[in-house]
Amino acid sequence: MKSRNCSLFNYILSLIILISLLPVNLSAQEKTLEEMTIEELMNLQVKTGSILNLTKTKIPVSLTTITSEDIALTPARNIADLIEIYVPGALCLNHTSPRIGIRGIIIDRNYKLLMLVNGKNMNQKGAQGAALELSNWDLNDIERIEIIRGSGSVTYGPGAIAGIINIITKTAATSNGTSIGVEDNFTYNSKGGFASLGFSAKDFNLYAYGSVRFTDGYKNAEYFAVDQNTGASGFLNPSQAEGVMPMFGDNLERPQIKLHFDVNLFNEWRVWARYTNSDQPALFRQKMTLAAGEKVPVWFTGQKGIVGVLENNHSFSGNISLKSNISYKSENYYDYWVTKPLLHYDEGGFNSPHGAGNIVYDFSESEIFLSSIINITQKDEKYKYALGVSYSYNRYGSGWGNDKMYMLSNDYKSPDGRYIEDIIADGFNTNMISFFSECNFEFHPLANLLVSARMDKNNFSKYFFSPRIGLISEIDKDNIVKLIWQRSVRMNTGEELYKEYLYNTKANPEILNCFELMYNSLPTKNILLNISASYNWGEMLGFVYDPATIKGETKPIGNLKYFTLEAEARYKFEKLTFGINHSFVKQLSWENAAGITSQGISYADYNSNGLLSTGNDLNNWANNATKLFANVELPCQFTFHADGQFFWKWNGYKDVQLMYDGKYGNSNPAWKLLNNILDDENFAGTDVKINLSISKYFPQINSTVSVYGINLLGSKRYSYSSGERYNYPSRLMWVNEPAALGIKINVKL
Amino acid sequence: MTNYRIKILFIFLMPLCLFAQKAKFNEYEVKAAFLEKFTRFIEWPKEVHLEDLNKPFIIAVIGENPFSSILNNMYAKLKIKNKKVEIRYISTVEEITDCNILFISESEKARIKHIISHTEKKPILTISDEKNFSKKGILITLYVKSSHISFEVNSNAVHNAGLYISSLLLNLSKAISKEDK
User: Fold this and answer.
1) Do residues A541 and A507 touch, judged by C-beta distance below 8 A?
2) Span A423-462, pLDDT tens digits
């Protein structure tokens, strides 16, 4: 088996190299554009312009774009906030770091999302998925963020069940000259600054960027928690001896740093490199006194990563082009959940991570990635075709600067009784090969057929196949209807694939099927309307721990069917931009897989510790989300921004209360008390978040000063719940996020 | 043949419907080249002082930049009216002030009137590739027809701007006159 994989990989590698070495220009023009006459320019055929260079309205996806102008005006701490503000239905829950949910899909790790930077997959394939980039509080290097709602694996990679977040960074073309800026968020005591340089010359463009951000965190946040054994509940008290972890404070006083470097040569070659880190946990616990007397947070988490990419975009002739890239990425992720005060922490990590009950991740993931996509366009652009192949080699090893790798919880032993960490102490490797193809047939403006397919194979997995068929009908220039069927397959994490190898199993992948109908319209020149309805069904995977065998692995946990409806309107007039969107997500059915009695997706099929099936809604989800935003240009160069998010009908959370009512009725005083507290705290009630900013531009010094307020009404931020299975609902945790104020000053020199 | 091989075959067979055709440039590379060509047929009034070679010829792009780095690359050496060319990417109308060519991006649909109110009757060559802009008072509109770039000139708007346009350019263009308004 190994040798067969090996030869396949060798073959593909050879193919990529061969394609890359094809002659540089198969059809050189006699004259350059600069040398041609205006008549010659008029006689030239041009290609207009995604894998197929389709215009955005014709792409068969639901897309939200957050521009640099939106980012400059919006009071957002990080990308997770921006997504929650602008993307219909999207919400963010706390866990070790922010967890993003799109269209009803959310889990305790962000591996159902794909995080891309300039199209490059930045997901941590080992365990966490989209972790890097999401928590960094500096957003000044971002030109725009494109978010695709719903599954999109076929185009972007085997992980995009919930959605795709693509960050497009600034370049010399979009940010020429020198810019500097500073920001102070007073409430979180977060201070930082950035500097950027964009330089353009003939055949050479350079963009360099650096930022640093120090965040102490908010020290008086109210964290609500419930004791799973007694039902005692309340807000953790910062005045207690150990204190409470500061909200979004940098672990071990490690600031967030971002560095970015981008060079474009001859309008064909691009080299870019990027370093990002974040050491901010988003789950809050009481601090703990270690044996050495040190008071530490009980949860440390963070990640840092570096990537370097070489891209080539070559046009052999006007209708054949080849996009190739080679990249190296390395990431260090750590997550220490200290449940026993036996340890001492130093820069190398906990010196005794095998302490019973301590869950430890500390590993690095390094990747070499090669990809080539050839695009062919037929005359008149009636037929377009793209074919791509990519290969990635991933090495999982010890964390940067450490000599040991900790990846799997030490609660779980391998079949031969050894701890997993011991087995993988030297790390492991995976290889993945992918083929993808897309074909567009424009028979008629009313009938544009797009057929896409993708196949992925990891050396520990089966072959995964993700197809998509889209019918796009351009009723007229301003009205487009799209009907899409797609099947999105998610490649499991490196950690789980390696377990399958150890346990000699090969689980079926997680698959989400979707029918989606979209309508995009421009009823007037100033109004944009988007409506989307989708029906989704698939077999969900989840982490299942078997105490009998002391084994835990990701397995199918049930079948989900749900429906989504999203409507979005944007109005843009001279000095006013206004947007409103609404998302409705309704679970149609949930059935546990054989042997599964509890899980975090829904309480509709449940049988654990006397807790029985209740309701028919998604857990960790608000069925309705309405979002609004407005930017108004005021006299004297002032610009006002307001946005609001209203999350309502948290029916899945309400099901928890009903489920415990079903278990205890009025017979349990502790539950009765807790239930009353939950009602008093408006648990699972409508959640409202309001952000405002006002900016003034000073043309004489080319500077903008913004004063902003985040979450001005105060609101709850729930933690992700993986389902209830104890005497009392201990997963009902939230933090009352504070209203925060801040200022930022940007100067273009 | 196993299932996955059939799938691989499916992926690879899709291109059979295609036919290779002759060379084409990227749309915005060609549009970028058009900017310089237009200036050969247009005269700016004396008060603009284009004869002052110490000052650059300024091309500004307002709104989303569809050219990526094409303009910067092309005009790093290419001169207009024997002057060095400066490319500016702007977002507010207040930044328009001293530019010679203003390319108005399609993203500016909603505030096109607002932009034109800042440019009309000023010697600024406004160019766009949004076809509906031409009747709003944009001087030159570039558009793609059958994979070729064409353009139309709004001669009234040119006159109002105080620019002189050569009949040679008008002959190559689709003219927009009062009747088309």
Assistant:
1) yes
2) 566 789 999 999 999 998 888 778 889 999 999 999 988 8
Residue A314 with chain B: CB contacts under 8 Å: none
Which residue in chain B is spatially nearest to A49 when comparing CA positions?
B27
CB within 8 A of B4, min separation 6: which ones?
A455, A457, A463, A465
- Give the residue on A whose Cα is nearest the Cα of B67: A173
Q: What gap in Å lies between CA A197 and CA A176, rounded to an integer?
A: 7
Chain B CA closest to residue A572: B110
Residues across chain A: 749
Set of chain B residues whose Cβ sits within 8 Å of the Cβ of A436: 11
Please answer yes or no on whether A378 and B19 come within 8 Å at the CB atom.
yes
Between B24, B65, B71, which is nearest A46 by CB?
A: B24
CA distance linking residue A494 with residue A115, whole number of Å: 16
Which CATH number applies to A2-748: 3.100.10.20, 3.30.450.40, 2.40.170.20, 2.40.50.140? 2.40.170.20
Mutate to test the interface with B, among A25, A30, A34, A199 (most CBs of B within 10 A): A34
**Alpha-carbon distance A124 to A131, whole Å?**
7
What are the sequence ranges of the domains in chain A?
A: 2-748
pTM listed for this prediction: 0.78
- For residue B27, give how far its alpha carbon lies from the nearest alpha carbon of chain A (Å): 5
Q: Give A-chain residues touching B41 at CB under 8 angstroms.
A: 38
B156: phi > 0 → left, psi -120 to 50 → alpha, else beta; which?
alpha
Residue with token string 């312009």? A49
Q: For residue B65, which residues of chain A lie inside 8 Å, CB to CB?
A: 173-174
Alpha helices in chain B (DSSP H): 3-13, 27-39, 70-74, 112-119, 155-161, 167-172
ipTM, interface predicted TM-score of the complex: 0.84
**Region A545-562 average pLDDT:** 80
Q: Which of A11, A37, A38 to mutate to test the interface with B (most CBs of B within 10 A)?
A: A38
Q: How many CB pairs under 8 A join A and B?
A: 197
What does the pLDDT read at residue A27? 35
Smallest CA–CA separation between A73 and chain B, in Å?
13
DSSP B106-150: GGGGGGHHHHHHHHTTSS-EEEES-GGGGGGT-SEEEEEETTEEE
Q: CB–CB of A319 and B21 under 8 A? A: yes
| DSSP state at residue A533 | E
Residue B171 burial (CB count, 10 A): 8
- Which alpha helices (H) appear in A383-484, and where do they start and end? 420-423
B72 to chain A: closest CA residue: A200
How crowded is the C-beta side of A221, counted as CA atoms within 13 Å?
31
For chain A, percent of residues with pLDDT exceeding 70 = 83
